[in-house]
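Can't attach files on this board, so I'm pasting raw text. These are the components:
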Amino acid sequence: MSRLITSLDVDLGERSYPIYIGQNLLRDAGRFRPHIPSKQVLVVSNETVAPLYMQTLLDTLQGLQVEQVVLPDGEEYKTLEILNRIFDRLLEKRFDRGCTLIALGGGVIGDMTGFAAACYQRGVNFIQVPTTLLSQVDSSVGGKTGVNHPLGKNMIGAFYQPRAVVIDIETLKTLPARELSAGLAEVIKHGIIKDADYFTWLEANMERLRALDVDALAHAVEGSCLIKSRVVSADEREAGQRALLNFGHTFGHAIETGMGYGNWLHGEAVGAGMCMAARMSRLLGWLTPEEEARITALIEAAGLPTAPPDLSPARFMELMSVDKKVMAGQLRLVLLKGIGKALISDDFSMDALQRTLAGYGA
Amino acid sequence: MSRLITSLDVDLGERSYPIYIGQNLLRDAGRFRPHIPSKQVLVVSNETVAPLYMQTLLDTLQGLQVEQVVLPDGEEYKTLEILNRIFDRLLEKRFDRGCTLIALGGGVIGDMTGFAAACYQRGVNFIQVPTTLLSQVDSSVGGKTGVNHPLGKNMIGAFYQPRAVVIDIETLKTLPARELSAGLAEVIKHGIIKDADYFTWLEANMERLRALDVDALAHAVEGSCLIKSRVVSADEREAGQRALLNFGHTFGHAIETGMGYGNWLHGEAVGAGMCMAARMSRLLGWLTPEEEARITALIEAAGLPTAPPDLSPARFMELMSVDKKVMAGQLRLVLLKGIGKALISDDFSMDALQRTLAGYGA
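---
Top answer:
Structure tokens for the assembled complex are below.
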């Protein structure tokens, strides 16, 4: 039986949409049908997720003209070329502007399907069904869609909002433990940047989360979505506060790029990146050693790396300079003045950055 | 010397922008600089236009970090694959979110550059410098950007507004006569759908326009931009009135697709398409034979075809069914109830459509 545990609305004016969180929502036609305006539906998934959940979703959508595209699984396939397979199918099937795209999978599938929906005939309906913890708490809120380029992650994309997000907590039971941990990185991030109480709750409940306790997971997903949707609602286009969500990401993207896409999971790189940003904040005197230790300990308890791989400081600087957070050559970083208190700054001593990078040498 | 002849504002709230129309505006730095917020500028052009005007524009932009991409010329290169060359250059040069893309060329360059600007880092600044009559009166107003797919034109794209449009009438002096005629198709269309007085002015001035009289051209460009921007301002997302701009286009796209991209110019296909739509309107009893004759005569006077190529009615119907104007299988067409009075309708006798298609048989 399907059970709606909770739901929330992301408030973006006329582009507002609901996020449903529950058990077996993949079987709940009532969650989908109000958001599908015509019979034409394309479900996009990947070779890992489709065998697990495609048939369930197809059964739920019976009576509609449902087509599917199953893409290869992995960040390395998040390219314009693979994206084109979605357009191929839409056009082969003569889908019109009233059609609906459903993303069934993790962040890569969500980003690509959302971008395809943004671009197909200049914009069609889009529903997210995120099946990984990372995508449930991160990619499904905020409207960021896109693909990678060999010279940088997420460099080609659009801001595009889904009509609805349907989160079935049950799908986490087939998620590899390593990917669960990667998702927890973003959960922890939300506490660190905005909500000390939520951070404390995570410290107390990390074991339940890793043991796949449904109530704990639903609470964490809801809490993270609330924090993120609050930030995004206030700042849809990332001019200001939204950039706080990049905490740990400038370091993290450098790690991902430096190691080659897919060798480190995004969440793992962000985990290490957050430890680096906390370290740097402490070296700047903005964070106490105790706060840094709590952050590092929670990231470790989530099963995540707390230090970067062996990249030289010079290579790190080079990798960070293509990051989107660099404005006209000036490096801006999200740093901390306490747990729950992040800020974006380009006014820091480069010495603290250099010492942070050097501190992890082999 | 550069001379601003006239300008108008396209009113789209916070995305409003000016259109400047004049002589030698390519040399007028004052038209560009207020719309370029950072030093990073990429000019995108093609192999035909770049040798004529790139150096002039580079001279005008001196002092900025200006890069260029020169694409092959032609509708057949309006693809995702060629688009990627723009992203390659932007990333090779480490252009950030504050950069500006300038489209120097016709509709294909404008559509591709605008789409690249919409997608690069999820949106950067964009200035249009349309150098063909068609793009001056059509592609540069309305924010439609995108690329083609083998199964349909403009199927992948975005609505994205430029910061400014700079129209240098002098560039029309290097335009092949056939392309000038193609641009006149859209000029005539604006009169037919919205403004009988403008249509009458065109009847009286068609010779001056084809003789490249600068005052006449500036007046026609302004008049067409005003009509189009009025329609677009009222209806940015094409739900209703904006669809009137598709007059002649459902037939026209079928011609273009059926003949293979590039064999008929877009404007030529629209010219023939408008004659077909006028014919069908007359067969429905909505347009008088005299009005149909005036429309056909003006299109002919512009140097445009007034009949489609030899495509069977069955093939025509097939080609029209993938057009974006088909909603859930129901064919919608823009038809006329008089010159200056267009309407969108799915409530017409299929017999009139069949007779229209059959009427042009070889």
